């Protein structure tokens, strides 16, 4: 379908004596992003334009002159769909469709359409359906305004339009309740999976970032997985988890989550909370940023705002977050070198290229360092009846030396975190303090 993208830029407004901008994004970056969103669902974007809006109209958002100008363009380019990169009320959407004689969708409707295309798991499909129904619920009444003017006879106050509205509203609400129940079951299943992972306590590392920042490409680079990674917005939607080994042998679980985006509607965040809870459970969060994008600072602010909405405040983020400056391969040599040098001097930043692999080894070392915490050096002798602990040790500790003794026991020189040292002591001693000859430090 041939589509036209319209980006309304609302004039900055004064609040409490201070000027407040309607958006932190540049108009050009908003137009580029909206066009990318449209192309992500195979729309043919034949025109895109930024429209300054000094005085938003309650009925149409845009002024009469601009509406007529856009209508002429639609007719000239045979465009049957208009994407307005701004929230529209049901009244505004209906009026614009009448004026332009074309289908009109706003930013929320477009994102929902993309999510519907990308969802592949049962959980993802349920979340998209629920968000879509909640979005439609507020717009249902306007679908039947042509019937509201009809009035029944015989003393009846209502008419067939009101009956139809109520029937549709009831069907919609029943479907929402059914989806919420199904989603609750999925959430319980996910919680059970988390509980199982806690019994085998591999640390969880979650990738977050603005959509198209390169999370899936980095995920594939680190784990060797075949997750879809394309240069498009929301190429992947459903979360993916993989085990991986760090350079010193420790096993962790890497989680690739849905990409964030600015102005993500509240009910969409709520619908995807079950998915985003993987981030809350993570021991370490990798915030992947596309440093080749001129608007990356605003994108970073949007990501941090959503993390705050999920309950991860700045203080907690400081302890659990590593910024991954991705796509440095796209930078000019001088900018590339300056960014690598700047990241080397920061405590929580690593510059990488997920495509070429540059900096990935440094990132893996930083993950190991952050997850290790205070390391304990230990020498243990595993008795014959405890040799089943060997796989656990190689997964959770760094084995610096091993000696197989004649009596069948094995002596190991280990480095491991204090938490894992306590867990190992419990496993060796079956919950009791182990003997000195079995556990030496």
From TrEMBL:
Residues 9-31 are annotated as: Disordered. The keyword Nucleotide-binding applies. Pfam families: GTP-bdg_M, GTP-bdg_N, HflX_C, MMR_HSR1. Residues 162-196 form a coiled coil. SUPFAM superfamilies: P-loop containing nucleoside triphosphate hydrolases (SSF52540). Keywords: Coiled coil, Cytoplasm, GTP-binding, Magnesium, Metal-binding, Nucleotide-binding. NCBIfam families: GTP_HflX. PANTHER family: GTP-BINDING PROTEIN 6-RELATED, GTP-BINDING PROTEIN HFLX. Belongs to the TRAFAC class OBG-HflX-like GTPase superfamily. HflX GTPase family. Monomer. Associates with the 50S ribosomal subunit. GTPase that associates with the 50S ribosomal subunit and may have a role during protein synthesis or ribosome biogenesis. HAMAP family: GTPase_HflX. This is GTPase HflX. The lineage of its organism: Bacteria, Pseudomonadati, Pseudomonadota, Alphaproteobacteria, Hyphomicrobiales. The gene is hflX.
């Amino acid at each position: 379908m041939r589509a036209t993208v319209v980006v309304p830029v609302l004039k900055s407004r004064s609040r409490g004596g201070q000027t407040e901008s309607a958006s932190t994004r540049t108009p050009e970056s908003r137009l580029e992003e909206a066009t990318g969103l449209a192309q992500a669902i195979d729309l043919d974007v034949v025109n895109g334009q930024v429209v300054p809006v000094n005085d938003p109209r309650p009925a149409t958002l845009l002024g009469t002159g601009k509406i007529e100008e856009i209508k002429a363009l639609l007719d000239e380019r045979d465009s049957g769909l208009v994407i307005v990169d701004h929230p529209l009320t049901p009244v505004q959407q209906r009026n614009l469709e009448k004026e332009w004689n074309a289908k009109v969708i706003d930013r929320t409707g477009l994102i929902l359409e993309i999510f519907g295309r990308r969802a592949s798991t049962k959980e993802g499909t349920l979340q998209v359906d629920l968000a879509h129904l909640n979005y439609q619920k507020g717009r249902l009444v306007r679908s039947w305004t042509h019937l509201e003017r009809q009035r029944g006879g015989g003393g009846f106050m209502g008419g067939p339009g009101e009956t139809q509205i109520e029937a549709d509203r009831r069907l919609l609400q029943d479907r929402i309740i059914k989806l919420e129940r199904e989603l609750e079951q999925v959430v319980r299943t996910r919680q059970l999976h988390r509980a199982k992972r806690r019994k085998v306590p591999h640390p969880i590392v979650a990738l977050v970032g603005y959509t198209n920042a390169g999370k899936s490409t980095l995920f594939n680079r680190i784990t060797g997985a075949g997750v879809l990674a394309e240069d498009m917005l929301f190429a992947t939607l459903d979360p993916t988890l993989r085990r991986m080994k760090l350079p010193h042998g420790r096993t962790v679980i890497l989680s690739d989550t849905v990409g964030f985006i600015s102005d993500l509607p509240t009910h969409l965040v709520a619908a995807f909370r079950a998915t985003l809870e993987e981030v809350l459970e993570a021991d370490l969060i990798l915030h992947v940023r596309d440093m080749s994008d001129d608007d990356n600072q605003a994108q970073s602010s949007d990501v941090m705002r959503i993390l705050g909405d999920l309950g991860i405040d700045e203080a907690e983020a400081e302890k659990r977050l590593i910024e991954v400056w991705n796509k440095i391969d796209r930078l000019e040599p001088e900018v590339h070198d300056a960014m690598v040098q700047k990241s080397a001097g920061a405590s929580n930043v690593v510059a990488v290229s997920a495509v070429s692999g540059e900096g990935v080894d440094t990132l893996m070392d930083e993950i190991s360092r952050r997850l290790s915490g205070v390391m304990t050096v230990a020498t243990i002798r595993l008795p014959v009846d405890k040799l089943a602990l060997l796989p656990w040790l190689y997964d959770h500790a760094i084995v610096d030396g091993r000696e197989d003794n004649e009596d069948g026991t094995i002596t190991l020189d280990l480095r491991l975190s204090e938490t894992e040292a306590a867990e190992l002591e419990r496993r060796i001693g079956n919950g009791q303090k182990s003997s000195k000859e079995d556990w030496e430090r």
